[in-house]
Amino acid sequence: MKDGIKLKGKLATYMRWPFILTILLVAMDVLLYSVSWKAGGIGTVFTAVYLLLGILLYFHRRPVFLNELISFATQYGQVQKSLMKNFALPYALLDAEGKILWMNDEFLYLTGKDQKYRRFIGNIFPEVTMNKLPLPEEVRDFEVAYQDHDFRLNMRRVEIDELLDGSQIIDADKEKNYLIAAYLFDETELKKYMRKNQEEQLVTGLLYLDNYEEALESVEEVRSSLLIALIDRKINKYFASIDGVVKKLEKDKYFLVMRRKSLEQLKEKKFNILEEVKSVNIGNEMAVTISIGIGINADSYAHTSESARIAMELALGRGGDQVVIKDGNNITYFGGKSQMMEKTTRVKARVKAHALKEFMSSKDKIVVMGHKITDVDSFGAAIGIYRAARTLEKKAYIVINNPTSSIRPLMDGFLHSQDYDFRMFVTSHEAKEIVDDNTVVVVVDTNRPGYTECEELLYMTKTIVVLDHHRQSKDIIQNAVLSYIEPYASSACEMVAEILQYFADGIRIRNIEADSLYAGIMIDTNNFLTKTGVRTFEAAAFLRRCGADVTRVRKMFREHVEDYRAKGEAIRNAELFREHFAISVCPSEGLDSPTVIGAQAANELLNIIGVKASFVLTDYRNTIYISARSIDEINVQIVMERLGGGGHLNIAGAQLEHYSITEAKDVLKQTLQKMLDEGDI
């Protein structure tokens, strides 16, 4: 069998060197003959002896040499096998299906298995699934945990094509002619120190008293200092218990410093400081509420502090009484369960009105737009801004793409009037032709860029104004020069009505414009039943003085019989989830504005005894629209935020794309169940 073995490569060349050197000796003999025949003869004899000995050694010693090679190779293979078996790094070989074929001693020790174990590696490490096995030329890394240890599992393919091609006893699928090598790297200590380092990270925050002035006014003057002292003590004691530091900056503002570990403790407690501060009562009629903004994971302390400031602005913009954590681009909310108190002063409205006037005076054109599927509140607010622009004798346009039946009666009144330019309403395409650097874009009734009628307009000019009454989320219009967002307001029309009172002396609002603004307030407050404050009635009174007619507005918003039937169908088919949540589906076929009907049905469902919140789903243009309503016990805004939407404490909504009605309803129920279990609602 050895006779059939042939040497090749560098080793074969090395064995042939004696014969190659014989050629050199022959050449030397030729030269010797030219000098002396006697010397040449002697050289020839020695060359012949050398060649003969070389041939004898080559053929006689070749089997012995091959034996030595084979013995060395065998021993070398055994050494390799022994090294792999006793290798300190855990190592295993898997087949193409991920089943374990072989494990070295360290792998066996760590997993507690034996060499006969032939199951899928995912049975040991659940993080590994079939679709996560490595592809050709790919290395896969997994973070896995096993018996209180943290590992990094490295997997890669080992091709065995040549081995299989030369084998006479093994046949394999050509598509699976590879093995998978798996290495385990113990990173328990590394993870431990990483966690410890993360726990020691600096976290900065801001804490504001939302209603400092109002709370002090509700208590006797001699007790006011005691109230503040009790709140200070409550705040300092709370954060001292988690190894935090509190520094009072102003009478109603505090600076917080703590470790990341302390923040995790507060998360587990769901920031119960929000409720503890409310419990401070020495006869004050109004409970004190606080807002907290926290910044983490920024690349510097300065940026961490800036993140805390942004988080605080977001908390206040959402109505206060909550905690907002800004972790890079991720925003987390806690609290926000109570209704924001209405501000009795209108100083802010006056300041914003003057600022708006300055911006509008400096430009030639004003373009107003609301949210997609424009409703009455959005339309009325846009009409109010249109009137402000016309008062300044500026060209003004309102962006509306697809007028719904809810706004068409109002819209027709403007289109059929000779007092208004027939081009006052434009589509998104037309608006993009109008907007330039000399244009003010005013966004009403929304503060999210993706919800606007034409998001592209926000990037076509630098002068953007936002007027909205919805709570802010992390996705807000960032580049606004003026942002007036008041969650306590009942509607955008209420805010615009207040602005108009301070916008210009003797501003003349026509009857049809007053009707539009009044209708927006009426619709958003459900005929002045929800989110209605003193300033809401003051705005309504102002509009009434300007010529708004209650009867005319009511007649304008009477419903078609098909809409009324659809609303009745939604109410009839409502189901109670967990006894207090009414969930229903509003039919959309044949309806011009099914989302509006769905919102009306959600309002009606609140009239059922025991219902704390209602949710009506509407399938419209391949999107599921959810209208959420509550009276006072449930914050539907935080429910809708879990689904990517938002709104107010009592009025909110969300849009789900690529869902069926059944799937959307299941997701809603799962969200409600989870929030109930976690105590978030």
Automatic annotation (TrEMBL):
Domain GGDEF: 200-328
UniProt keyword Metal-binding present: yes
Cofactor binding remark: For phosphodiesterase activity, probably binds 2 Mn(2+) per subunit.
Keywords for this protein: Cell membrane, Hydrolase, Manganese, Membrane, Metal-binding, Transmembrane, Transmembrane helix
Molecular-function GO term, any one: metal ion binding
GO CC terms, sorted: plasma membrane
Family: Belongs to the GdpP/PdeA phosphodiesterase family.
E.C. numbers: 3.1.4.-
Residues bound to Mn(2+) 1: H371, D375, D445
Location of this chain's protein in the cell: Cell membrane
Protein name in UniProt: Cyclic-di-AMP phosphodiesterase
Binding, Mn(2+) 2: D377, D445, H469, D524
Species assigned in the record: Oliverpabstia intestinalis
Cofactors required: Mn(2+)
Residues that span the membrane, as ranges: 12-33, 39-59
Catalytic activity: 3',3'-c-di-AMP + H2O = 5'-O-phosphonoadenylyl-(3'->5')-adenosine + H(+)
PROSITE patterns, alphabetized: GGDEF (PS50887)
Function: Has phosphodiesterase (PDE) activity against cyclic-di-AMP (c-di-AMP).
Name of the top EC class for this enzyme: hydrolase
